[in-house]
Amino acid sequence: MCDACQxxxxxxxxxxxxxxxxxxxxxxxxxxxxxxxxxxxxxxQYYRAQCACPExxxxxxxxxxxxxxxxxxxxxxxxxxxxxxxxxPESRSPCPGIELGNSVRFxxxxxxEASIMYGKDNYAMQQGYPYGAYELGPSKPLMGPPQTxxxxxxxxxxxxxxxxxxxxxxxxxxxxxxxxxxxxxPGVVMVITLALGILLGLYTLHRVLLSCRAIMxxxxxxxETGRFAVWLLFIAVTASIAFVLGMLIGSYNYQTNMRSIFxxxxxxxxxxxxxxxxxxxxxxxxxxxxFVAGAGLDFHLANGFKNTDIFCVAPITVNNMVxxxxxxxxxxxxxxxxxxxxxxxxxxNSDGPKGGLRITSDEDRDFYRLAVQQAESAYAIKxxxxxxxxxxxxSSKQVLDDERAGYQMFLMSIIAHFxxxxxxxxxxxxxxxxYRFE
Length: 438
Description:
Shape: elongated
Strand content: 15-25%
Helix content: 25-40%
Structural class: alpha+beta
Number of domains: 3
Radius of gyration: 39 Å
Low-confidence stretches: 6-11, 15-23, 46-151, 221-228
C-alpha cells in the first residue's frame, strides 16, 4: 500500500459556495506508517496554507504557518478532515481551533484538487526542517488564480436518462389509464397505479432527503456524483410529475373518447331497425344501429332540458308517422335551445342512410330521460322504453372516427410531454453547467 503513495505535492483548495471564499494549501501523500502509525494507508500531510477568507471560520487554522504542525487525514468522500499534531521538535501545539483526535466538517465547503502538480525534480527534503516540511525548488507552480466557479462537464448519460425515463413513465401511465385494460380490468389498473405510485413516491422522497442532507451539511461536492447525484433527483421529481400528468390526461382521454367506444363495441349491432314497428325493449343490448330507409327525425317533437348544459332530444320516426310509443331518440349536448324545438345535433341535416351510436353514460342518460319526460308532457306523447343514440350517417364509420380521435389525443399528449421534458432538461443543463461549483 505504501508504494502506491505519491510523493508529489499538489494544491488542494477549499471553496465555499455561499461567499466564494478560497482556502488553498499544499499537501502531499505519505504512508501512515512513516507517521508512527500501524496503518499503511496513504494520508495527506499539511505543507503550506494560503487563505483568502478574512471572515472564515477556518482563517486562524489555515493561516497557521508552523510547518509540519498539522496532519490532515482526508476521508474518502473528502467531506471531513481529521487533524492531529505531528511529533515534531519544532512545533508541539495542535492545529489552531481543533482539538487533537477530533474531526472538522466543512459545512458549506468543498474540496478542489488542482490538476497541475510539481515534478519530482522540483522539490527536495530539506535538512533541519520537521518531518513533512518541504521547501520548493526553483520551479514555481503553473497554477493561476483560484477559480470560484467553473463549468461542469456535461453528463451525457444523465441527460439521456433525464429525457427518456420520465417520458416513458408518462407514456405508460397515459396508456394504462385510457386504453382497454382499464375498461376490462379496472382493479388491475388501480393496483398497478398504486404500486408504481408508492415506489416512485418513496424513491423521490429518498432523493429529496439525500439532497437536503447534502445541502445542510455542505457536501456540495457529492451532488454531481455518488449517491447525491443531482440528475437522479431531477429524474425522480420529473418522473413523479409525469406519473400524475399521465394518469390525469389518460383518464380524461378515456372519459372523453375511449370509454364510449369500448361500450359500443362490447354491445350488439343491429341493422334495418324500424322505429315504427320495433320497441326499445327489444334492443336493450344495442350498441350500433342502422335504421331503415325513410327513418328520420321529427323536429316538431324535439325538446331541450337545461342543467348547466342543454340536453337535446328528438324522436326517430319513419316519414314523420305518429307512433304509439317513441322509443328511439337522437340526442346531443348544447345543440338546441331549451325554449323551442330546434334540434341541430349530429348528422341532423344528412339525406343519406341514418344510424345511431348508443349513449352509455349513466349521468347523461338521466338528463336525456328528463328531456324526454318534458317532451311527453309538452306534446302528449309516450316513450315507454326510450333508448338514446348519437345520430350519425354511418355508425360503423363513426366508431372508427371516435377511436381515431382517442388515439390522436394520446399521440399528441406524448409528443407534448416529450417537448415539455426536453425543455426542462435544457434548462437544467444550463443551470448545472453555469452555476455549479466544482
